[in-house]
Amino acid sequence: MEDRQLIQAMAALAQETRLEVVRILAAAGGEADSAADLGVGSLSVGAIAEKLGGVNPATLSHHLKELSNAGLIQARRKSRHIFYSINRDVMAVLIDNLQISCSIEDAPPTRVGDSFTPSFLGR
Fold first, then answer.
1. Could you give the CA distance from residue 80 to residue 2 in angstroms, rounded to a whole number?
2. What is the pLDDT of residues 57-80, one digit of tens each?
3. Domains of the chain
């Protein structure tokens, strides 16, 4: 992933509603919209809006477009409806790049849930 793409992805996530949409879609990994038949983790715009608590449709459309342009989510059309899912490949590359960019030499890898204390601050 090029720096320009990393910056675009991080900029897309640097907005409260878009970050929440990504969280919703990531959490939907075990559920599917009943009408979707698009596989696990795909949610309709209506389902996303409902989980967000009734965001204006035009506003939600804008946020979905920004996340899609950044490559963080994927859209699939079924009939007249659009279903969104997280782009796990892009998210994995983004996370890997952040871990590499933010790592401190000789520091043990940090596991999710661990509090982060740089080695030079002691433990």
1. 35
2. 899 999 999 999 999 999 999 888
3. 3-103 (1.10.10.10)
